[in-house]
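Before a colleague's protein record goes any further, I have to sign it off. What it holds is a sequence and that sequence's fold in token form. My question to you is simply how this chain folds and whether the tokens agree. Thanks in advance; the entry in question is below:
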Amino acid sequence: MVALISAVVLAATGIVYGQNGKLRPEETALKNLQWRAIGPAIMGGRIDDFAVVEGNSSTFYVGAATGGVWKTTNAGTTFEPVFDDQGTASIGDLCIAPSDPNIIWVGSGEPNNRQSSSWGDGIYRSLDGGKTWQNMGLRDSKHIARVVIDPRDPNVVYVAALGHLWGPNRERGVYKTTDSGKTWSQSLFVNEDTGVTDIAMDPRSPGTLYAAAYQRRRTPWGFNGGGPGSALYRTVDGGASWVRLTRDLPEGITGRIGIDIFRGDPNIVYAIIENAKGGVFRSEDRGTTWKKMSDVDSRPMYYSQIRIDPNNDQRIWQCAANMYTSEDGGRTWSQNVVTRIHGDYHGLWIDPANSNHMLAGSDGGIHQSYDRGRSWDFINTIPLGQFYEISLDNQKPYMVYGGLQDNGSWAGPSGTLNQEGITNDEWFRTGGGDGFYSVVDTSDPGTIYVESQDGNVARLEL
């Protein structure tokens, strides 16, 4: 933390990069300082995806929006950061090769379209269970929403590349490799404004895939999440050709689309479609025809994740601010099954060996259930909080204050007498909502000013 604070101060002085090959002034000042974790882990942070080893659910990986990749081998009791030395900490998707659990692919750059969405620098591969990584290209894709691997051949990988959020570019669409990332072919390209936000592979016929094209553009003054480029596509020849699916699906301006295939019978496919006449759609013939099940599609630009229980095609889950659950194939929905944990869900995994076992990832971190979502364990053992801004006071040791994305404002110590280091219980909340600037009165550390969304400012007197 000292290094971070020093770097902020030096950056503010206007020091610029030197070009004579010597250490820059800030590098000289900081070269002997080391990073020291001070937390907190108490509130979690945005989770984008999980990847769980088939047949061994105690080993899984967590992809955080800005916190890299974490691995556990004991069902979440402890975690190890396995991606900290790579070129980005923003994760879009994770995928483990079905034929070899040592092979993991990471698509960088979260795909959730916020003003604060961080971008990545391509696709990464590990051949040793996350011990080492290699960047395998697609660096200009910026945001990778999904990675799928052929269960018969781990060298065959498909990537859903969203492309730039703030402007046009060509490196977007569906990319395919047949040589484990040495070379890539652009299998599906719509236009420079349209990327692909989801892709699903038929587990019994891996040459059949569905891709959700998504036209989007963020500007400093707003967001346009839709256009004529958005559509659902299918290939039956491993991406050599794609057909746009239109029969029984809504026409007109379309936004974000989510897809899932029923593991027990891949004829059954679900899509959640953002459209004036959109909602949840079900196909029973691999996408040739569709039936609209309901209108439910909550804030699709930020969620649009639909999951079918791998053991029951009538039980459907939909990620949103609240978790939606259907027991009748998507006709009706309930929001009262998953309760009392942090909302804004982006990742959901259901154990194919036991549907009662689930992992949920939200803006509030990692949650695990063993009774199909009725109760949850909050895994608050890793620091994932997303600080927008931080400040300090003049106490010794000084306190650190900051505002976090969707997790309020908090304060905690820079040092402690505990041999274990700074713990969660030494941090305390100073504000709610989306925390932003948090400033303490330099003459009275008991007075703290905090900011939250929509221009709200509050004063806390301890």
